[in-house]
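re: ur question from yesterday

yeah so i grabbed the chain u mentioned. its 102 aa long if i counted rite. heres the sequnce exactly as i have it in my notes:
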Amino acid sequence: MRQLPAREPRVSHGAGPQPAGAQLVLEGHDVRWGDVEDHLAGLRASLEHMAQLARTLEEQEFAATLQREIAAGSGARTAELYESAMPAWQCYAGLRRYLQRG
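ran it thru and got these structure tokens back, copy pasting raw so excuse formatting
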């Protein structure tokens, strides 16, 4: 497998610093996250981890690893729901395309 360049995925929100106590709100749903910066830091870390897996693993190994990690952290049912909403093969394909654009 060809080694991909170290292009880093990015997550950002709004311009400038956020006011203390700012919340990230999912419009149309009654879902709120407390500290926006903490939430985005966790999202960035997850995305960086998945990008590293996509850089170094083939599709089937990536999918199995991602499914195993989700199940270990959230349970088998949540892993099934993730796979239904965002199949691991599709996540892999998207990350590989993004990383190859480097």
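noticed a couple things. Helices lie at 36-56, 59-74, 76-85, 88-101. also The longest helix spans residues 36-56.
anyway ttyl
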